[in-house]
């Protein structure tokens, strides 16, 4: 594929001509009155079809007893049925006593974990976090906007830390947590990270598990949302954080979150929390006041449908077969339209739900604005940073799974024109 | 039916003879090695069968679009699908814009409402409740132990208020809330109350809605758990609290909670919160950070199964046909074994899940202990009062729905023997 010319090497006339041509193209898109949404990581309808069978998996004829005899229709049990614990413990490579299976939303589990920490502290806390003058969380960025929203809601101060190719900048992380006891934790999407698709290296995992923290009740919020969401046949391997924490002598440091929202149904999945037994015992006490227990029938549905890790992996391959071509469309377009022009960079992810595009500094907001005017909704510029503020105004999250291939082609065409328009303006102004 | 002799009028010899006879009966029960649980208000297996059809109501062939076009399988919508709002708004006699449909547990909604109040305040709060030196809630007692557990967990001080035949002692309530701005709310189970089965009078509802409260952000926690759970063909009528609050000029005072846990499945029901639009708008903002939205498929299942209020009412009549005979067993036994003896009193409820038995002062713990030794588990004595402490040690909650009729007969036989044993000891000691 022929690559474009470096915009920084073009002279002003060339740039202006290029701008005119792009502007015409842009006006063409605008006149089509499109309405394409690429803002959220939603499975597409074809992906949802893969799990339709789960709607038939239980019938009124079936026994609805869990393997321990619990009637899944009635009250009882606040941390999940044993067979669900078994399955998801395998998925996360933890023990069946190290997992708690809940409702339909891992986001709720994360919110509630921090909300409980503010109100009651975590296992081993001397003081509820909310009673302290200040609570801070490290936020490797770009990261997941909904994590940041939880912090904002709870009044937890966010400290952005750069993401490097193998995870958060651990030198910075180690320095910060060693010095400041108000830093109580760190957000991590350790595998196929949101938005960059990066998987943390073993060294990163070990450093997170072993680092000295001034706060004795420091917690790693390990959002393993994409643990089985591979896009290649050679999946990334993520080192087991719970094991690493145990080995490092910090057995209670990690909360692992995951869900089947993007395995079965986003609306009606099953969410899990894995952690040390001490952490789970502490949490169960509060949970037994908060709830009469999770929907056990939906857990049973999941276990009967997903069965075991082999069936689950085969199911995930069907997801990959649907969305991998969409990632390829984006990557090919980015390469053909923006490659070689020295105005944007991106990473090819091996899994997950997102692509992350970095423009020239100071261009992201303008690109998102231009795209919106042409009918393409992107995730708000800045959303991938704490307080919605990207210090270099360059990161744009691309969510390619929901639109059809055709819509995606158009949307990325629009995006690429917008990136070029904004870049030329930037280059001309500098 | 012949009634017993007043124990207070028996002489010591008569009482001792009676005690011996009862003790023999008691030992007979003990030797049977029974294990009967009457501690929790759980539907029995036959009740669960009534809703089995709901497991087949959706199939993979069906459209899973809500009436507004929302795909119930995918992300989207944080406060329930429109048809679920419609149905449950009818059930609670509120507007469709005054309701929010959530997950499987109204207890979670209540916990979260207070947890949010502590962390962020409620609509109109000057300060999050948790930042105030003290927060108190009024607890009409006997009441629901799980309400009290939420207060204990959140560090909310509980003030017991007596229950009268038409609701809480409103003279006491009005006096307390007028004087103390740290009293931020009141727990109410206004219809077929837990445990007494009392329904609040119109006057009580109006006084709650209209009373002057020193706290400007006072909230009524209106747990309308048994709103359609009638035991007679002449159901109690409860005055609409939301209307009453509006009329009284306190439109944001009430949070109404309900669920289908005891309509369909305890484990997989649908919970709702009804309140003013201002309250719901305030809550939705926080909810959108806490969750990706409730299980919309389960909401659709409920709407397709329960359809409308006529079908729902007919369904509830089937519940009543199963559990009414159980209430009758208890009431008949209590009358035949304890009637006329002046050692116990109870109220005949028109609905709900419980009967409340008051023994002579100082006897409840002993009765529950004796029953447990004979293999009958009752709700812990004191559980119906804040901090598990019944000041007169006399209230025992009876949950008759789960055991079979045969088990229930035996369990109440045991209970009645235990009440008499404890009463004679008490009378002899005084």
Structure at a glance:
The structure is a homodimer of 430-residue chains. With 430 residues, chain A is an alpha/beta fold.
* Shape category of chain A: globular
The average pLDDT of chain A is: 96
- Quaternary structure annotation: homodimer
The CATH superfamily of the largest domain in chain A appears as: Type I PLP-dependent aspartate aminotransferase-like (Major domain)
Number of helices of chain A: 13
Task: Write the element-wise H/E pattern of chain A from the N-terminal end onward.
Answer: HEHHEHEHEEHEHEHEEHHHEEHEEH
In angstroms, what separates the terminal alpha carbons of chain A?
A: 30 Å
Largest interface summary: A-B, 55 and 55 residues
Numbering strands along the chain, what is their spatial order in the largest sheet of chain A? Answer: 2-9-8-7-6-3-4-5
Residues in β-strands, percent of chain A: 5-15%
Question: Biggest β-sheet of chain A: count, sense, barrel?
Answer: 8 strands, mixed
**Unreliably modeled segments of chain A:** none
CATH class of the largest domain in chain A: Alpha Beta
- CATH topology (fold) name of the largest domain in chain A: Aspartate Aminotransferase, domain 2
Radius of gyration of chain A: 23 Å
Number of domains of chain A: 2
CATH A-level architecture of the largest domain in chain A: 3-Layer(aba) Sandwich
Number of strands of chain A: 13
Helix fraction of chain A?
40-55%
Structural class of chain A: alpha/beta
């Amino acid at each position: 594929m022929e690559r474009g010319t470096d915009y920084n090497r073009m002279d002003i006339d060339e740039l202006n001509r290029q701008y005119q041509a792009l502007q015409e193209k842009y006006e063409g898109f605008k006149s089509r009155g499109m309405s394409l949404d690429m803002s959220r990581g939603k499975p597409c309808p074809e992906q949802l079809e893969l799990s339709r069978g789960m709607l038939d998996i239980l019938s009124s004829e079936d026994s609805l007893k869990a393997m321990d005899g619990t009637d899944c229709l009635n009250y009882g049990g606040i941390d999940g049925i044993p067979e669900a614990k078994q399955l998801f413990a395998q998925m996360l490579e933890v023990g069946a006593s190290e997992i708690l299976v809940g409702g339909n939303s891992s986001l709720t589990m994360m919110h509630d974990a921090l909300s409980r920490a503010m109100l009651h502290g975590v296992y081993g806390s001397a003081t509820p976090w909310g009673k302290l003058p200040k609570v801070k969380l490290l936020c490797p960025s770009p990261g997941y906007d909904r994590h940041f929203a939880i912090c904002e809601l709870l009044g937890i101060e966010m400290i952005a830390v750069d993401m490097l190719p193998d995870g958060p900048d651990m030198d910075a992380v180690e320095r910060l947590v060693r010095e400041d006891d108000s830093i109580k934790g760190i957000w991590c999407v350790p595998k196929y990270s949101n938005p960059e698709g990066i998987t943390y290296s073993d060294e990163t995992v070990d450093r997170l598990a072993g680092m000295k923290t001034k706060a004795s009740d420091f917690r790693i919020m390990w959002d393993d949302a994409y643990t089985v969401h591979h896009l290649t046949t050679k999946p990334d391997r993520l080192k087991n954080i719970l094991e690493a924490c145990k080995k490092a002598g910090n057995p209670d440091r990690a909360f692992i979150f995951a869900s089947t929202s993007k395995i079965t149904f986003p609306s009606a999945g099953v969410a899990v929390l894995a952690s040390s037994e001490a952490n789970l015992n502490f949490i169960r006490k509060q949970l037994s006041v908060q709830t009469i227990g999770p929907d056990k029938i939906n857990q049973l549905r999941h276990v009967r449908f997903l069965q075991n890790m082999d069936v689950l992996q085969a199911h995930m391959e069907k997801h990959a077969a649907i969305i991998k071509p969409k990632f390829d469309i984006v990557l090919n377009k980015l390469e053909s339209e923006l490659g070689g022009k020295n105005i944007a960079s991106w990473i090819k992810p091996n899994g997950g739900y997102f692509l992350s595009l970095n423009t020239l500094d100071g261009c992201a907001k303008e690109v998102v604005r231009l795209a919106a005017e042409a009918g393409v909704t992107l995730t708000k510029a800045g959303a991938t940073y704490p307080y919605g503020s990207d210090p270099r105004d360059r990161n744009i999250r691309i969510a390619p799974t929901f639109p059809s291939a055709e819509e995606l082609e158009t949307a990325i065409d629009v995006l690429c024109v917008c990136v070029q328009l904004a870049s030329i303006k930037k280059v001309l102004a500098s």
